[in-house]
What we know:
mainly alpha, about 0% strand, elongated
Amino acid sequence: MSRLFIVSIVSMISLVALSGSLQAKPELREVAHVRNGIITVGIAYEISQKCGSISPRYIRGLNFLEGLKGHARNLGYTNREIDDYINDSNEKNRLEALGRSMMADMGIVEGEEATYCAVGRAEIEAGSGIGRLLR
């Protein structure tokens, strides 16, 4: 093969890779895996705080959150972008509202410990994302 041909191929590959990295990323709040993961952790934490017989699995929860950060980094988000997303008070309020709506759909009634415990036990039994963060 000629040297010019090899240089052309390498240049084309570089341009394709560069064009992919220049494409606009969606806002981190639009990345479903990250958003839903944060809500899952929030629901598990809320259940563990409102039901005296259920405890959080702290290490598993921290590992899960680190996994979400790693996923975001793999998608090209910087640590600063991730931190800005995590610390955004409007986004915290939005995620909390989504989580509370989901908890209500699951049968949790604010202020009624028995409902938190029943849902928590059901999630643990089902081995769901929420249940794996509880014991």
